[in-house]
Every structure is written in C-alpha cells, then in structure tokens.
Design a protein that fits this description.
The chain has eight helices and 14 strands. The chain is α+β, with helices and mostly antiparallel strands and 304 residues long.
Length: 304
C-alpha cells in the first residue's frame, strides 16, 4: 500500500484534511439547522424554500451548503489548481460535452437525498470527492443526522470521525455468499427493470434507504453488503457517485459497472449510465457476473 496520495502542487495533506474537517462540520451544522427549522449559521437565510427543477426538488439547504463548501475551498486554498463541479452548478459547466480542462477537480453534491431531507427520514448525505483526471483520490461522505464524517484516501484507507475527531475504522461484514448478503436499495428511484432485477437476485435481505452516501455508509458499517444503481430514462450524475465511490474504494470495497469496468468522472458527460454495483469487495466479480447475466435476460439491449 502506498504511503501517500498525489495532490495538486502546494497542497499539504494534513492541512487539506484539517480544512475539510472544519468545512464538513460547518456543512453538517447548516443542514441540521434547516432540518429542524432553526436559524442557520454563517448568515444563511432561514426560509427553507423549495422549488422543483428538472432532476427534483432544490431547497435553500442545497444552495447554502453548496455556497459554504465552494467558497470555503476557494478562500482556504486560493492558489490551488483545481475547479469544482457541483450539482447546483453542473448544468452550466457541461458545455459541448467536453471534459473540464483542469487536471484536478472537486465533485460536490451538497445534499444527496433531498426528498429524504424534506420528508424528515434523516437518510440524506453530503458528497465531496477530489478527482485527478477522471479518478477519485479522496472522498468525503457526511451523514449529518448520525454526526458521521467518512473520509477516504484511495490507497491509504478510510475511516469515520465524530465531531471530537475520534476515529473508527470501517467494518465490512463477513458475509461472502450472495444468498446471505444484504442488499441496500433506493427508496425513491425505481423502474421496472430494476424491480425485476432485484426480484431475481437471491440475496438474504433488502433494505431501502435514502441517499447513495447513506447506502455506502451502511456497507462500510457492515449493515449491508452491496448496492445496485440502474439507469433508466435518466441516470445518476457524477456527484451522486464520486464521493461515496472514493470512500468505499479507499476502504478496499469495489464500485464498478456490472461488466467490471471502472467508473470515470469529468468525461464531458455528467451522467453515470448503466448498471453500477458497489460492494464490500467479497465476491464482487461473482455479483457482477450474476447481475450482468440477469440483465441480459430482462433487457438484452441494456448497456451495463
């Protein structure tokens, strides 16, 4: 295992992590204040207005956390040679389907699971990943209602911290037979192909929960073993997957297409089309092979 990760010039890892911790707990405080109807910190507006965009509801909480994290990164690292792709600004950045020219980029989802946030389930998250080229090297997944900050350094490891800085390592389950594994699935994103696929897999138990980050945290804590994302008329975006993939991969798990192809980011298309599978890594290849075969029977035209 390598001793360090590659970072942009002039960026020190310890300094970066120190600032990410500060910004992350600030983001958690903002979201928790909005979720409880309290006055948000840092001067953000109290009104939790909600509007529906092309991809679903957007709230003042999304925009406030987006501003807090993007402006925070700019202020603390003014000379850094990176850019930011976020859910709230992504449409304006996708020009002619050309990748951004920056070698380094942050990919941010300031509030993954907006519906869960608005409905009060608590199963929402914040995703942040540092991308080098088209691959993540560092990931952050925040679970505000559980006061969890997951950090992953690809090649170095992953862990969860509390507000006092106490660390705990991930704890994958020992379940390695598909028939004994627990699947974690989306509560709100379903289509006929996905439902048929889930019915055909001989897993032990299915848990439906909110955001992608929340699902991956379930796997990291050993409460679930694998997750399937299947695109339909639309697809998850880079910001849905980058942070969770970085943390899971850093922990030694796997996050790939069903044909075992790696995910790629900043390719010019923000959509993550196909069948994406995340797992604790035990028999990941067998899970992928089984799912690919079943998808061929369900929909031979589907591109995994």
């Amino acid at each position: 295992m390598k001793k360090e990760i590659e970072l942009p010039k002039s960026i020190d890892l310890d300094d970066l992590l120190k600032n990410l911790r500060s910004l992350s707990w600030g983001a958690i405080d903002i979201l928790k204040a909005y979720s409880r109807g309290e006055e948000p910190p840092y001067g953000f507006p109290k009104a939790l207005s909600v509007s529906d965009g092309g991809e679903g509801p957007v709230s003042a909480a999304d925009l406030s956390v987006n501003s807090w994290l993007i402006n925070g990164l700019k202020a603390r690292f003014p000379l850094a040679s990176w850019t930011v792709i976020s859910e709230e600004t992504g449409k304006g950045q996708k020009v002619n389907f050309n990748p951004l020219e920056h070698e380094w980029s942050w990919i941010l989802d300031p509030l993954d699971g907006t519906k869960d946030f608005l409905q009060g389930t608590g199963e929402y998250a914040v995703h942040l990943a540092l991308i080098h080229g088209d691959k993540p090297v560092l990931g952050v997944v925040l679970i505000p209602e559980l006061e969890e900050m997951w950090l992953g350094l690809v090649g170095l490891g992953a862990w969860v911290e509390d507000r006092l800085g106490n660390r705990k390592s991930f704890s994958f389950s020992n379940r390695n037979q598909i028939s004994k594994m627990i699947l974690v699935a989306s509560r709100s994103h379903r289509d006929q192909n996905l439902e048929q696929l889930l019915e055909s897999i001989p897993f032990s138990e299915k848990k439906r929960v909110g955001s992608v980050g929340y699902k991956i945290a379930k796997i990291l804590k050993g409460e679930a073993d694998f997750y399937i994302s299947l695109s339909g008329k639309s697809a998850p975006k880079d910001w849905d997957m980058a942070g969770p993939e970085a943390v899971l991969t850093a922990a030694g798990g796997k996050f790939t297409h069903a044909n075992m192809k790696s995910l790629a980011y900043n390719t010019g298309d923000l959509n993550q089309w196909g069948c994406l599978i995340a797992s604790h890594g035990k028999n990941h290849d067998l899970i992928c092979k089984m799912i690919e075969e079943k998808l061929t029977l369900i929909d031979p035209s589907f591109l995994v």
